[in-house]
Design goal:
With 93 residues, the chain is mainly α. The chain is 45% helix and 4% strand. A two-stranded antiparallel sheet has the order 1-2. The structure holds iron/sulfur cluster.
């Protein structure tokens, strides 16, 4: 995303909306380090737990709205892990 691109502008607007919503309503993931961990370090049971946390979060809608627009490079947002895909494992002969 380049500076001043329409997607960046829209993402900024949605992040602002998410931040505003979070002022009176703390996110369900507050203080949970798993939500900022590298995608590749999360185990399936952790992802299941996080998905459940998000499903009960009062900020699910604005969080997902932001993440779908911004496509963050890392982190877990509204039930989805974002980041680069895992590198393919080199084949051994
Ligand atoms: S939807 Fe999930 S990632 Fe987004 S604020 Fe809520 S708990 Fe955190």
């Amino acid at each position: 995303m380049t500076r001043n691109s329409p997607r960046l502008t829209e993402a900024s607007r949605k992040l602002e909306a998410l931040t505003r919503a979070g002022v009176d309503t703390p996110p369900a993931c507050e203080g949970d380090d798993a939500f900022i961990a590298d995608k590749g370090t999360l185990l399936p049971h952790e992802l299941s737990r996080m998905r459940l946390v998000c499903s009960r979060c009062p900020l699910l809608e604005p969080c997902g709205d932001y993440a779908r627009t911004a496509r963050p490079e890392a982190g877990y947002w509204a039930g989805m892990a974002y980041g680069r895909p895992e590198k393919a494992t080199a084949k051994t002969a």
